[in-house]
């Protein structure tokens, strides 16, 4: 009787069903356990908008001690910050996230100086910094301030027609100022015409596109600064003689750079690469897609940068300097030395053929321990202005260059990208075609398919 029951069809079906249910439950249970322990996600956006950047992964992943992120908000709104904060906790087991409701724990809010919500503080190595806002830029900036501990100031030279820090026009540097602020750099303008010394609180110096000549006392101040272990970046445009505004040769400054092994050529680089034209760039904007292994650009492979109105450089090592190119123009580029004519002859035999070096970085041996001078030279300044800083990797390059100059190599990386606006632009004919297909063709296909199915079944 028992053997017949075991062989019965209903018994077999019951056994199969039971086994199937047990297997499904086991799979679901294992999946839930793994999902609880390991948080994995895939960001399909083109600029990885919903993922933490390489910069954040590098900073948080290299923490040497435990860190605490404290999120302040009413308890019913904790979920607003949870997804972002969980991403930080998933990077490193050293990161702990606390949630505090100031209404229930006012003492904690007063201790950290919390006046508005939501707010975030980061505590690391005995220091606590408040994030500027509840975003990746704000929270990672708080981590940087905790880790670095000291104030770093980037000084921008003014007085000879350079791009201005507080200028919001396309030629200004307000976007660069904001970008450096995200890495917790302070910025200020200094006038070497009024003082022939670089202030002692300048961690790095930036010469951003001077229009006029630097006098010898100004150049001597820069020379003394770098050769005593200072850091400086030079963005020098070609000395064009077109229109009402002309750019000076700046011979005293370029002679100083030449003594360090960087000759800034008096020419204008034009890029005939068709890829730039596809991106809407003219020949006057050399497009760069390949870089050397120098730390500033080592992580930028596959990222395009553009350099409007650029000049070429010639580099070599000098007595106390080691110089490396950062990147060059394409093989289809050329450089004209006729800087006073609005028209350029591509076939002029005096033109220099590409590829041509557009930027270089070097170190100066001061002879003192832990006192190395550093400098970066780029043959264009417009690429770092508000007009072009947001073009592909230009912002990354500017930030990386300042990081390297300030010996903050741990910050060099690809930074968070802002949301992209990708409108679809269609001609009138294309819009008519889309309307016909969506309103008539697709519904007609569905109707015909339905009729065929009906006819076949009939």
Fold and architecture overview:
With 458 residues, this protein is of the alpha/beta class. It folds into 3 domains: 2-37; 54-147, Glutaredoxin, CATH 3.40.30; 153-266 and 287-329 and 354-411, Class I glutamine amidotransferase (GATase) domain (Rossmann fold, 3-Layer(aba) Sandwich). It has 12 helices and 18 strands. The strands form 5 sheets. A 7-stranded mixed beta sheet has the order 6-5-7-8-18-17-14, with helices on both faces. A 4-stranded mixed beta sheet has the order 2-1-3-4, with helices on one face. It has a 3-stranded antiparallel beta sheet with strand order 10-15-16, with no helix packed on it. A hairpin with an 8-residue loop joins β17 and β18 (373-378). The longest helix has 30 residues, at 428-457. The protein is globular and about 100 Å long. The two termini are 51 Å apart.
């Amino acid at each position: 009787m028992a053997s017949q029951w075991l062989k019965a069809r209903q018994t077999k079906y019951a056994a199969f069903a039971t086994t199937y249910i047990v297997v499904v439950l086991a799979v679901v249970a294992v999946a839930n356990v793994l999902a609880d322990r390991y948080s994995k996600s895939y960001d399909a956006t083109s600029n990885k908008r919903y993922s933490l950047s390489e910069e954040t992964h590098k900073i948080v992943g290299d923490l040497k001690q435990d860190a605490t992120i404290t999120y302040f908000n009413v308890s019913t709104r904790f979920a607003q910050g949870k997804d972002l904060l969980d991403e930080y906790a998933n990077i490193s087991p050293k990161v702990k996230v606390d949630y505090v409701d100031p209404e229930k724990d006012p003492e904690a809010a007063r201790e950290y100086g919390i006046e508005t919500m939501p707010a975030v503080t980061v505590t690391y190595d005995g220091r606590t910094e408040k994030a500027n806002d509840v975003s990746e830029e704000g929270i990672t900036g708080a981590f940087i301030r905790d880790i670095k501990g000291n104030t770093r100031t980037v000084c921008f030279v003014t007085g000879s027609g350079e791009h201005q820090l507080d200028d919001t026009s396309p030629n200004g540097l307000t976007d660069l100022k904001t970008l450096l602020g995200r890495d917790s750099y302070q910025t200020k303008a200094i006038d070497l015409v009024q003082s022939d010394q670089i202030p002692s609180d300048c961690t790095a110096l930036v010469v951003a596109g001077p229009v006029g000549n630097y006098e010898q006392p100004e150049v001597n101040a820069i020379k003394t600064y770098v050769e005593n272990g200072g850091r400086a970046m030079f963005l020098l445009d070609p000395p064009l003689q077109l229109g009402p505004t002309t750019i000076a040769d700046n011979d005293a400054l370029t002679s100083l750079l030449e003594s360090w092994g960087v000759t800034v050529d008096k020419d204008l680089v034009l890029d005939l690469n068709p890829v730039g034209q596809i991106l809407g760039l003219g020949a006057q904007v050399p497009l760069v897609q390949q870089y050397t292994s120098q730390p500033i650009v080592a992580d930028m492979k596959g990222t395009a940068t553009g350099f409007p109105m650029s000049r070429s450089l010639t580099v070599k090592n000098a007595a106390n300097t080691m110089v490396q190119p950062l990147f060059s123009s394409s093989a289809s580029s050329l450089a004209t030395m006729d800087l006073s004519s609005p028209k350029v002859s591509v076939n002029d035999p005096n033109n220099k053929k590409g590829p041509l070096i557009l930027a270089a970085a070097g170190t100066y041996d001061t002879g003192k321990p832990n006192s190395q001078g550093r400098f970066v030279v780029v043959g264009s300044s417009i690429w770092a202005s508000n007009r072009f800083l947001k073009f592909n990797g230009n912002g990354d390059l500017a930030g990386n260059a300042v990081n390297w100059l300030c010996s903050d190599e741990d910050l060099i990386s690809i930074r968070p990208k802002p949301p992209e606006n990708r409108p679809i632009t269609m001609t009138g004919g294309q819009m008519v075609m889309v309307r016909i297909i969506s309103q008539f063709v697709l519904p007609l296909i569905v109707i015909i398919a339905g009729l065929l199915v009906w006819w076949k079944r009939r």
